[in-house]
Amino acid sequence: MSTPILELRQATKKYAGVPAIDAVDFALMPAEIHALVGENGAGKSTLTKVMAGVVTLTSGQMLIEGKEVNPRTPSEARQLGVAMVFQENSLVPTMTVAQNLFLGQEHFFNRLRGIYIAAQQFLQSLNFDVAPTATVSLLGAAKKQMVEIARAVLHNAKVIIFDEPTASLTPEEKKYFYDLVLDLKKRGVSIIFISHALEEALQIADRITILRDGKHVVTDLKQNFDRARIVQAMVGRDLSQTLYGQRKATVRPAGRRVLSIQNLRMATMVKNNSLSIFAGQVTGIFGLVGAGRTETFKVVAGVIKRDFFHGGEVLFHDRPVRYLVPASAVRDGIVYVTEDRKIEGFFETMSIAQNLYMGLLAKLGGKRAILFNSEADRLAEKWITALNIRATGKDAKVVELSGGNQQKVVIAKSLVQEPELIIFDEPTRGVDVGAIAEIHQLINKLADEGKAIVVISSYLPEVMAISDRILVSRQGKVVEEYSALEATEEKIMYAAVH
Amino acid sequence: MEAAAVIAVLRDFTDRVLGRGEAAITVPPFDGALKPNQLLEGAAVVAQLDAPDDLATNGRSVFVSDGPRLLHLDGSALNEVQRFDRTITALTCLPDGGFAVAFQGREICIQGGKHDGTRWSDAAGKPFCAVNALSPAPNGKLLATDGSATQPYDKWSHDLMGLGRTGRILELDCSTGAAREVAAGLSYAFGACSAGEEIWVCESWRHRLLRCGAGRSGAVLDRLPGYPSRITAAAGGGFWLSVFAARTQLVEFVLRETAFRKRMMAEIEPEYWIAPTLSSGRTFLEPMQGAHIKTMGILKPWAPPRSYGLVIRLSPEGLPRYSFHSRVDGKNHGVVAAVECGGNLFVLAKGSRRLLRLDIADAERRLLA
Q: Of B125, B83, B79, which Cα lies nearest the Cα of B103?
């Protein structure tokens, strides 16, 4: 048996003491196509980032061709022959293809013509139909991917890692991509690719590794897998052992239809999506990355815009709405609690009181000419108590709070707007265990009060524990609906990947 | 005010250009309480009939209209109660023991009871054209819906494709013989019932259930994903609403394309129109009913429903609680009537000409399972 070209032994990476991957063993053979499969948060990205030098291991070993290595940067990893092609490509959009290929390898006297000739010859040798003089921003997704691959090969990569390589490709482009991967394999390059599309893994991989909750579950030849076995391995956790406990025994009955989304379209992410949200219920939205969940509800809340022509309809209380900015949605009673709190959720150098007051001002629009610190203070005191925000006081800067308390501030900032429809996007991501339970209690309380609640989550146990009704999203639209009473992890995951 | 009118006109124009607002060709989803199941398709077939049209119950037994015949369901057998010389288009049992019957949509007649022989053939100076539903109202009155003033009862799809707005709801006084128009200008009124002091009426082409009377008006239930038909009271409070076809984007599109629609109506036989029907799948000449697409190696059915079977259980407030379906690949389509009697729901699937029976408790249990 030949030596693995790349091997990880007992690889562990911890973030703030929490393992993202935990004692994972992984081996990639020469000229092998190896698929990495797992739910969101299973540790696939962390594992590949370790290989690509983006992050370093907390403990464990990484070996290349049998020699222990410890790449600390992507450039060190590239020198060792490991290159990674990210889902969001890393090309410079304003530069030409040739300039991107040779970026970082420029000589002191660089002739542009020389670069173009070298790039042309190199691209032709790979049989890639891309003009070296073309500006990258004008290329389609598949061609950009080709440039990324060409760059990896140019750097003499022996291992190329793809993160969701086909997510943004059309069916024709996907076919072309598969051919490219097979061609690279013939050239002796080993490929690792992360994919949520099980069909893809079963189609082009030689072996498949499945990760779950940061741990290695199984590695086997693709012939020994079928869809059912993969899904079972992906979700096979014991629900009773998770943080969220037992599944629901009762569900809340639906009230009036608050939101109706009909045939919604938004670029390539949301495709003819239709769903309803009812008052007095928690509706959980589950889907894998790229399923269009966040984009759908960002359109509803006016954070992003739907297609200009024939973008479908969004009806709030049976009235068509089209918000150009979130403030209009807030005034109507729709709030979106972002998944990315650090960027979109709060002003980190401002105090809790100031952040909450911002929320109120957004609701009031231009009606408030004079601002009152006393009002902001009263508001902060009320919500710090109501949501049990642990801080030194209302004047504490949000940046000084823990993740869980920051999330509570973001939620409080939305609740001061007295919404009817609250959209929580990944409400417990990066939140400590105690705060998760508190946030869930709060969500349940809001539903009991008759509010319409949407919880978008990539974590199945969370969706199952908190939802009265679960919608499964795939490829830009809702494909299945379950009552919490009938849902199982296997059913939901099956709907999400097929 | 003028500025508002101009803005409205401009908005209407831009909506048409951009496919937004009223010009958006969208259809509400079957979800929540309307999530599809196969309970209606799996319902027991009580009888296969020739030309059934309506159901009625007096609380003890069920009556069915079948062409010109009035039948009584005795156990699982249907016995003829009376045969008329014209087709029955609507039927209801009256509290005093008689029946109210509509003949060919043009005349309403009381049969039996203390007002036997009372007849109506017009209201508010306009003759009946397409009387399609009858329902008793408090104070000895009778509610009737006249679907269209221009198209007869059996040409309802002509009314839909002609964007008909001539439906009306009538209140008939059995003791005096008076007839009053409660509301007019409806986009095909099909089914009505009393709900406390209010009258609820289905406006099929606008996919909604309206309330009128008692000083209140407006939608009880709006933007349904199908075309509602008759509505009857449920035993435990609330109502049964039958829906005779499902909406599709294709039909919505055709309804907005006036030139295409007119040409289709002029040149093509009605059974092949791109329009909802009570049943389908008889010939390959019909517009597409079912198909499939292959995604990620899995063959998946894709079905624009030309015909569909649906009964919705409404709460006393008019909120959908659950529903029984016969999906695209089923047979029990074109549901025009549903009545509850003795713990069973009797459903008339006009598309398959079947009288169906569902044990309500059992169906509710299966829905929750």
A: B83
Distance between CA atoms of A84 and A152, rounded to whole angstroms?
A: 8
Residue-level pLDDT at B300: 60
CA separation for the pair A456, A51 (Å, rounded)? 31
How far apart CA A361 and CA A376 sit, in angstroms, is 10
Q: What residues of A are in contact with residue B219 (Cβ under 8 Å)?
A: 318
Q: What is the pLDDT of residues A317-332, one digit of tens each?
A: 999 999 999 999 999 9
Q: Strand A82-85 and strand A159-163: pairing?
A: parallel
Q: Which of A:209-268 have CB within 8 Å of B?
A: 253-257, 260, 262-263
Torsion angle of C-alpha atoms A168, A173, A179, A182, degrees rounded to 10: 0
Angle at Cα B270 formed by Cα B268 and Cα B272, nearest 5°? 70
For residue B358, what are its two tokens?
């569902």
Q: Are A13 and A59 in contact (CB under 8 A)?
A: no
Q: Which helix (H) or strand (E) holds A17?
A: none
Mutation site for A-interface testing, chosen from B12, B18, B20 by largest number of A Cβ within 10 Å = B20
Exposed / middle / buried, residue A166 (Cβ in 10 Å: 0-12, 13-18, 19+): buried
- Which homologous superfamily does the CATH classification assign to the domain defined by A6-236? P-loop containing nucleotide triphosphate hydrolases (3.40.50.300)
Chain A residues within 8 A of B238 when measuring between CB atoms: none
Nearest CA in chain B to A308: B18
Inter-chain touch B26–A255, beta carbons under 8 Å: no
> Who has greater pLDDT, B203 or A19?
B203
Question: Residue A246: what pLDDT?
Answer: 60
d(CA A101, CA B297): 36
Which CATH number is associated with domain A241-497? 3.40.50.300
Inter-chain residue contact B25 with A322, CB threshold 8 Å: no
Bridge partners, B243 (sequence order): B228, B310
In this chain, the answer to whether the domains covering A6-236 and A241-497 adopt an identical fold is: yes
> What was the pLDDT predicted at A200?
78
The ipTM of this complex is 0.88
pLDDT in tens, B58-117: 999 999 999 999 999 988 889 999 999 999 999 999 998 899 999 999 999 999 998 999
C-alpha separations of B101 from A467, B89, B142, B341 in Å = 49, 8, 11, 20
- Coil, helix or strand at residue A262: strand
Q: Which residues of B touch A (CB under 8 A)?
A: 18-21, 24-29, 31-33, 35, 219, 222-223, 249, 295-298, 319, 321, 368-369
Q: Is A274 on the interface with B (CB under 8 A)?
A: yes
Set of chain B residues whose Cβ sits within 8 Å of the Cβ of A315: 223
Sign of CA dihedral A315, A321, A326, A327: negative
Residue of B19, B223, B296 with shortest CB distance to A310: B19
C-alpha torsion angle, residues A239, A242, A247, A253 (rounded to 10): -140
Q: Which helix (H) or strand (E) holds B317?
A: none
Domain positions in chain A are 6-236, 241-497
A contact residues 279-338, partner B, Cβ 8 Å cutoff: 308-313, 315, 318, 320, 322
Report in angstroms the alpha-carbon separations of B42 from A111, A233, A293, B241, B330. 76, 35, 34, 19, 9
Q: Which tokens go with A304?
A: 């992003």
β-pairing, B88-93 vs B99-103, is antiparallel
**Distance (Å) from the alpha carbon of A1 to chain B's nearest alpha carbon:** 34
CA distance A311 to B24: 8
